[in-house]
Design goal:
Layout lengths: L2 H18 L14 H16 L20 E5 L16 E8 L2 E8 L6 E2 L7 H8 L4 E4 L4 H8 L5 E3 H4 L5 E2 L9 E4 H11 L15 H5 L4 E2 L2 E5 L7 E7 L4 E6 L2 E2 L1 E2 L4 E2 L1 E2 L1 E6 L2 E3 L6 E3 L5 E7 L2 E10 L2 E6 L2 E2 L7 E6 L5 E4 L1
Parallel strand pairs: 1-5, 2-24, 5-6, 17-24
Antiparallel strand pairs: 1-3, 2-3, 4-8, 7-8, 9-21, 10-11, 10-25, 11-12, 12-13, 12-16, 14-15, 17-20, 18-19, 20-21, 21-22, 22-23
Keywords: Signal
InterPro entries: DUF3048_C (IPR035328), DUF3048_N (IPR021416), YerB-like_sf (IPR023158)
Pfam families: DUF3048, DUF3048_C
C-alpha cells in the first residue's frame, strides 16, 4: 500500500474518532454563579434572617415579639400645662382643637412606656373615636357631656381621673389644677388589671415605607412650617427640620416642645396634616369635628411635603394618593387636624 493511501486512512480514523466524542455544554441557566453573585445572595439571606419583629405603630425594630395593647392618653396643651411628661415617647400623637383655639393631644403609647405621663385632661367624643382606631385603653381626667355618655355606655375600655383622683391619678404641686393631673404607666397597668381589661393584644400595624422608598421621597421642600390655630402666639405650632437628625422639632408659642421627664425634645419622622370640617356646638366653644368624610391634607417627611387625600380606615386617619395608600417613615408621627389648610404655611 502506498504511503499516500496510509496517510489518508490515518486522517479518516482521527476524524471519525473526534466526531464520536460529545462536547458537554452547560446550559446558561445552570452555569456556576460568579463569586460576587454568591456573596450578594449570602448577604441578602442574612438580612432576611436578621429581620425581626417591628413595633406596629413606629415600624422600628423590637427586641422580641410584641404583645402589648396600645394606651391612648389625653394630654393637656394649655400654656400652664407645658412642658409635658411622656410626649417624646408616644408613637403617634393627634393634635386637635378642644375648646375655642386651644388644642389638646391624644398621645398613643405602645413601643415605649414612660414612667410619668401628663398633665392629663378631659375626654371628648372625637378623641375617643380616634383612640378606638387603635383598640386602645383610653386614659382621661374628666369629660364633656357627650364623651361622658360614650364612656358610660362602654364604647371603649377606659380609666378616668374622675373616679381615680388621688389613687391612680396624682396631683403635682408644681402646677395648678386643672393642669396638674398625672399618672404612671405602672398605675395604668394596675387599673387595667383591676378592671379586667385585656392588655396583651397589639394594634394592627400602620403602613410604613421601606428604606429604598424613604430614600426616594420627593415633593415640595418643607423645612419649616407653621400651623396657626389662633392669632394668639401661644397656640401657633411650628415645625423645623433638623438635617442631622433627619427629624422635625416642634415648637409651641416659639418654645421648643420638650419632654420634662426625659429632658429631650420631641422629634418627629412624620407630620400629617388633615383638613376637615369643624363646627362649634356650645357656649363653651366645644367642637363637632368630622373625622369620617375624608378630605385634603399634607404628608411631610424628610424635609419634603406631598399634597395628599386622607381617609378614615377602620377608625384611623391615613394618607392616600387617589386609591393608593401612602406609607409613613419608620419612627414617630404627629397628626395635626385643622379646620382649614389656609392656617398652614410652609417654607423652604
Amino acid at each position: 500500500m502506498s504511503k499516500k493511501i496510509l496517510v489518508l486512512l490515518l486522517l479518516m480514523t482521527l476524524l471519525v474518532g473526534a466526531c464520536g466524542k460529545k462536547t458537554e455544554v452547560i446550559p446558561e441557566e445552570q452555569e456556576p454563579p460568579k463569586q460576587e453573585e454568591l456573596t450578594e445572595t449570602v448577604e441578602e439571606e442574612a438580612e432576611v434572617e436578621e429581620e425581626g419583629p417591628l413595633f406596629p405603630l413606629t415600624g422600628t425594630p423590637a427586641e422580641e415579639e410584641i404583645d402589648t395593647r396600645a394606651v391612648a392618653v389625653m394630654i393637656n396643651n394649655h400654656p400652664a400645662a407645658r412642658q409635658q411628661s411622656g410626649l417624646s415617647q408616644a408613637d403617634v400623637v393627634y393634635e386637635v382643637l378642644a375648646e375655642g383655639d386651644l388644642t389638646r393631644f391624644l398621645a398613643i403609647f405602645q413601643s415605649e412606656k414612660p414612667a410619668n405621663i401628663g398633665p392629663i385632661r378631659s375626654a371628648r367624643d372625637y378623641y375617643i373615636d380616634l383612640a378606638k382606631g387603635y383598640d386602645s385603653l383610653y386614659i382621661a381626667h374628666g369629660y364633656s357631656p357627650k364623651a361622658h355618655q360614650m364612656l358610660k355606655n362602654g364604647v371603649i375600655d377606659h380609666l378616668n381621673g374622675m373616679q381615680y383622683d388621688g389613687s391612680l391619678f396624682k396631683r403635682s404641686s408644681a402646677k395648678k389644677a386643672p393642669h396638674n393631673s398625672y399618672t404612671t404607666f405602672e398605675n395604668i397597668e394596675k387599673g387595667a388589671e383591676s378592671n379586667g381589661y385585656e392588655m396583651t393584644t397589639s394594634p394592627e400595624p400602620l403602613p410604613f415605607l421601606t428604606k429604598e422608598e424613604v430614600n426616594e421621597l420627593s415633593g415640595d421642600t418643607a423645612e419649616q412650617l407653621t400651623i396657626s390655630y389662633s392669632s394668639n402666639q401661644n397656640f401657633v405650632v411650628e415645625y423645623e427640620y433638623d438635617h442631622d437628625a433627619e427629624k422635625y422639632k416642634r415648637f409651641s408659642g416659639g418654645e421648643l416642645t420638650e419632654d420634662i421627664e426625659a429632658g429631650a425634645p420631641v422629634l418627629l419622622d412624620n407630620i400629617f396634616i388633615v383638613e376637615t370640617n369643624h363646627r362649634v356646638i356650645d357656649d363653651e366653644g366645644r367642637h363637632d369635628i368630622d373625622l369620617t368624610s375624608g378630605g385634603n391634607g399634607y404628608l411631610i417627611q424628610r424635609g419634603v411635603s406631598q399634597e395628599i387625600e386622607w381617609k378614615n380606615v377602620d377608625g384611623r386617619i391615613l394618607p392616600y394618593d387617589g386609591s393608593k395608600a401612602l406609607g409613613f417613615v419608620p419612627g414617630k408621627t404627629w397628626i395635626n387636624i385643622v379646620p382649614s389648610n389656609d392656617i398652614v404655611e410652609m417654607k423652604k
